[in-house]
Amino acid sequence: MRRRRPVPWAGVAWVSRPTLIALLSLAVAVSAAAQPPRPAAAPVSDYTVGPHDVLTITSYDQPDLSGRFSVEADGTFTYPLIGRVKAGGLTLRQVEAQVKKQLQDGGFFNTPQLSVSIEQYKSQKVFIIGEVRSPGMYPLSGDMRLVEVLARAGSTLPSAGGEAIIVHSATPGVSGPTWPTQGDSPNVERVDLRELQNGVFSLNVALRDGDTIFIPRAESVYVFGQVRNPGAYALQQKDTTVLQALSLAGGITERGSTSRILIIRVVSGQQKELSVKLTDAVRSGDTIVVRERFF
Predict the structure, then answer these.
(1) What is the pLDDT of residue 38?
(2) pTM for the predicted model, two decimal places
């Protein structure tokens, strides 16, 4: 029997918002060769150790000195032969140098050969709130970026808007999320999730200790009359047209007229009826009514 050759994966077709973030990580890997180079991320060795982190120390001189060591609340941990070692506020390479120095100063080894890495990230954290499946606090591990945190939160809900608002904390180590304030601020970044999905990987923002990711609820438009699925629909992108809003409602029925569409809109507190074309933009809160054909 002739075996079929596997067909290489060529891309991701358009998917609904709930599965968007789950596929982004795969899209990043597949499109890596095509994306423009971005600034190099800080290596994990530059991670700043804090209380409750768990370190792995591998000793090449004496395997019995290898193991896992928890950093205590005062920023220190206990290591065989030398006792207390300061780790809080130091990078992994600085902790490594400190352990080597104390082993040398104690006369145990002339040139200790060992390495220090992170077993569990517990001291640094980020928060994600808003329209995601599992909002809450997540440990910040190494070079963590926006897509990874969204994936850990179970992706966005269907009610989510097309934007992520990232509030960078001015004081690392905060105990709770920081809500975005009105207006723009130097410590606030806004990310268009649709553009990120479409390959603008520079929007995959690097996160810092204490950051909060806020996913706001999408604005809604209401579609009634001669459409297949009348109801309220979330606007997932800016400048949504009448045609795009109608497509959310399943399109116009056989009895509907594309030339007899009106929008009911509140302007300055007054309700107005506006005749529109399919290419006109809709606003949040609009009610689109598709009327019957004359014949």
Answers:
(1) 40
(2) 0.63
